[in-house]
Design brief:
The complex is a heterotrimer. By secondary structure, chain A is α/β, with parallel strands linked by helices. Chain A has four helices and seven strands, in the order αββαββββαβα. By secondary structure, chain B is mainly alpha-helical. Chain B has a domain of 280 residues: Cytochrome-c3 Hydrogenase, chain B. In chain B, strand 6 and strand 7 form a beta hairpin. Classes of the chains: A alpha/beta, B mainly alpha, C alpha/beta. Chains in contact: A-B, A-C, B-C. At the A-B interface, helix 2, strand 3 and helix 3 of A face helix 1, helix 8, helix 11, strand 6 and strand 7 of B.
């Protein structure tokens, strides 16, 4: 029998009806009830905790065998500019042993310093760089906080709601002259077009 | 119930045992730190691999620090294909986002469509009828086969086996013929849409898929005959790029990269979607966690995908393919001629689109590379407020610096090929 | 009006008979003017040089070797075009050279992001003359469906393009058609003009 035909595994643990309840067991031991906000949407739990408790909650969720959330799924920001703390920073963690998913959320403003989880989950390192790059989230104690997706000298953070993304005006017959003369409107060319050749 | 290696509780990063005693090793974590840990007297050559490189599978730049032929540190530099998908999603309606999602993981576009559609359907609370779900499964698994064929062809090509490249494309063209037959487009089909499909499949679909499924397992035997027992291939891949299960999990790896290390995590089994729980298939895992095991895992996955397609096409139910919720899917043409309400709904959906209620959901599918997740936030408007795409290759690639530690520079190509990255997922 | 090419003037003295040269003035050719009128290139060349020009052009277009510059989805169709079903190699593009120094065609296949722009320019500059560029796909030609901050709206903002292929991605037959059109363009280009 060729090696690739060797029998493969296994019945997984069935997913819970509401994901993330195991995490709440651990979180409630660490964070007081008035500082914790739990929301359940579409059977998924989001636990909002204070910014200062982030690392200890993450370490507890990883190490506690009741929870065992060892896999960093992703980390992202959601920008709500009308709020005081405009960024809702979300960390999604998965437990493979229990087949569970939890979202840890912290609220941060543009100037708040968010502690880095790269030492707890190596996979978060690049996700934090991405949040820094696209949102301008200030992260501290990160091993290498540089831009990851955009060029190093890029100005601005594109995924913020106040960043206008525009490449080139589209030329129709009714606005042909306007569209073909972008040099009068430099704001329509955000970000330098690097390496442009001087055309004769 | 799987047993995983014990969890490290002291908050430190996993370290690899150095291959040679006495050779100073640079801590692989913290990719900015590698220059700081150089021992006095050691001379490292820093070379640049990419972004224009035949073997990096896209525009990936690797900065390698070499000690002779050994890689002491590898720093991937990404962003050369950053397209701003997530920003574009915020300015397009949900239907307009579907063709955008095609272009992210461009080796298996229907799976991206499926992930996006599932997330939007969760927000909307609509259910796709069984026929639509089965066809989605068939299309997704066929595109998984097509993606694995490209992976196999290019991986073998990088290691010198040109014949496998030619063979794999022969089958891929057959899969693309099927895609073209149902949607009109070879690659970026946009066939799977929110609420169902673009349209019902034509009648030639079932015979075409049956013919493909009948001959494909023999083709996989052909590819395995070229590579699996090939001593050159084995020498180049066995024992290379080893990653143990705990490290793979801590980097967030998924898909073949994780299963090669022995962790049987597959989203189709862990959280079944689109009637995957009705099909009988296995999830292959590796033993050693090296490049060869990942190769075996993906080849076996091709067979399993073929198995799923066979079951789905034999048991394909009748009925509608789209949800009956008229606020989401265009009404059928016959109804528009007779009903004013259908006409208005058609107009509203075509111009404005549908408006999911405010909410947030994370929905994951198993793409060819791993867990493809869509974190979708709706504020009640007709455009996603925030749609974060969790690309599997992003996390898989972050483990590269661990895997190539102390390997030869010529083996970097083999390891990169074994992770099966796609820069569209990484850079988005 | 002829095709004027700003050429290097060969500063030869006017040694024609009219200016009263030596007895062997007949053997010395006229000074070549600073601007060459190439519209009469074919007429000026004579039978021998047109045939040589045609042979050189045939040699050039029959063995265009592309540099691997596949960026995104179009690269997959480019790989499909070079495989067994569509077989780009029968048009002369036998090998895709990894090094731009050994290539004469750059098929920009895929979207060019802002970070990739300078790399594209550098690879183009590294290619020796004569070189051509095919812009494959909508993203390379005009930015495609990505009219945003991240994508350069057309590679012709960075490198001069000879053939544009529409499509997202274009079928492999589209790429074959573009290569054929490029071959016709090379056949029609007088060889002398490529000296610049």
């Amino acid at each position: 029998m060729p090696e690739s035909q060797r029998p493969a595994v296994i019945a997984p643990v069935p997913a819970p009806v509401v994901e993330g309840e195991r995490a709440l067991l651990v979180i409630r031991e660490l964070v007081a009830e008035e500082q914790l906000t739990v929301s359940v949407e579409h059977s998924q739990t989001t636990a909002r905790i204070p910014l200062g408790r982030l690392i200890e909650v993450a370490v507890a969720l990883r190490n506690d065998p009741r929870a065992a959330y060892e896999m960093p799924v992703t980390m992202t920001c959601i920008d709500w500019p009308e709020r005081d703390l405009r960024f809702q920073v979300e960390y999604l963690l998965r437990s493979l042993v229990h087949n569970d998913l939890i979202t840890l959320a912290v609220a941060a403003s543009e100037d708040d310093e968010v502690p880095s989880l790269a030492a707890v989950f190596p996979g978060m390192e690049w996700h934090e760089r991405e949040c820094f790059d696209l949102f301008g989230l200030k992260i501290v104690d990160h091993p290498n906080l540089t831009r990851i997706l955009l060029p190093d000298d890029w100005e601005g953070h594109p995924l913020r709601k106040d960043y206008v993304s525009f490449g080139e005006p589209v030329a129709f017959t009714h606005n042909l002259e306007w569209a073909l003369s972008p040099q009068d409107r430099p704001e329509y060319l955000p970000g330098a077009i690097r390496g442009a050749v001087e055309r004769p | 119930m799987t047993t995983l290696p014990p969890i490290r509780g002291d908050g430190t990063l996993p370290n690899r045992v150095p291959r040679q005693e006495g050779v100073p090793r640079i801590h692989p974590g913290g990719q900015g730190e590698f220059l700081d840990k150089i021992e006095v007297g050691e001379d490292l050559l820093e070379i640049n691999m990419g972004p224009q490189h035949p073997a990096t599978h896209g525009v990936l730049r690797l900065v390698l620090s070499l000690d002779g032929e050994r890689v002491r540190a590898c720093k991937p530099d990404i962003g050369y294909l950053h397209t701003g998908f997530e920003k574009s999603f915020e300015s397009h309606t949900y239907q307009q986002c579907i063709p955008l999602t095609d272009r992210m993981d461009y080796l298996a576009p229907p799976i991206n469509n499926l992930g996006f559609a599932l997330a939007a359907e969760k927000l909307l609370g609509v259910e796709v009828p069984p026929r639509g779900q089965y066809i989605r499964v068939i299309v997704a698994e066929l595109s998984r086969i097509a993606s694995h064929l490209i992976w196999l062809g290019t991986h073998a090509l990088d290691l010198g086996a040109t014949t496998a490249f030619m063979y794999c494309w022969r089958e891929r063209d057959k899969v693309l013929d099927i895609m073209e037959w149902i949607s009109g487009v070879r690659m970026m089909t946009s066939f799977i849409r929110v609420g169902g499909l673009m349209a019902d499949v034509p009648e030639e679909f079932v015979p075409m898929v049956r013919a493909f499924v009948a001959e494909f397992p023999a083709r996989v035997d052909e590819y395995e005959g070229l590579l699996t027992s090939n001593p050159i291939f084995r020498q180049r891949t066995i024992g290379l790029g080893v990653m143990d299960a705990a490290t793979a999990i801590s980097y967030g790896c998924s898909g073949g990269t994780l299963r090669g290390s022995g962790v049987p995590y597959d989203v189709r089994k862990a959280a079944p979607y689109s009637s995957y729980d009705q099909f009988d298939f296995d999830v292959p895992v590796g033993v050693r966690g090296d490049v060869y095991d990942r190769y075996l895992v993906r080849v076996r996955e091709m067979r399993e995908a073929c198995r799923i397609v066979k079951q789905a096409v034999e048991g394909l139910p009748g009925g509608p393919v789209n949800t009956s919720d008229r606020k989401v899917v265009l009404p059928p043409r016959a109804e528009i001629d007779n009903s004013m309400e259908s006409l208005i709904l058609h107009f509203k959906i075509s111009t404005e689109g549908f408006r999911p209620p405010p909410g947030r959901v994370y929905s994951a599918v198993e793409s060819a590379r791993g867990e493809l997740g869509f974190l979708m936030v709706s504020d009640g408007g007709n455009r996603p407020y925030r749609c974060k795409v969790r690309g599997p290759s992003f996390s898989n690639l972050s483990a590269l610096s661990y895997m190539v530690q102390d390997e030869m520079v010529a083996d970097v190509v083999a390891v990169v090929g074994s992770i099966d990255i796609i820069l569209g997922d990484i850079d988005r | 009006m002829g095709l004027r090419v700003p050429g290097d003037a060969l500063h030869l003295p006017n040694l024609s008979r009219a200016s009263g040269g030596g007895s062997d003035a007949a053997a010395i050719p006229r000074a070549i003017p600073a601007e060459r009128d190439l519209s009469d290139a074919a007429a000026n060349e004579g039978i021998f040089t047109t045939t040589v020009g045609k042979v050189i052009a045939w040699g050039r277009y029959s063995s265009i070797w592309p540099a691997t510059f596949g960026l995104a989805c179009c690269a997959i169709e480019m790989m499909g075009a070079s495989n067994s079903r569509f077989d780009l190699a029968r048009f002369g593009t036998e090998v895709f050279r990894a090094s731009p120094r050994q290539a004469d065609l750059m098929i920009v296949a895929g979207r060019v992001s802002q970070k990739m722009g300078p790399v594209l320019k550098q690879v183009y500059d590294q290619m020796p003359d004569p070189k051509w560029v095919i812009s494959m796909g909508a993203c390379a030609s005009c930015g495609g469906i990505f009219n945003n901050y991240a994508i350069i709206q057309g590679v012709d903002k960075v490198v001069p393009v000879d053939v544009y292929i529409p499509g997202c991605p274009p079928r492999p037959e589209g790429l074959l058609d573009a290569v054929i059109k490029l071959q016709k363009k090379i056949a029609a280009t007088p060889v002398a003009s490529l000296r610049e």
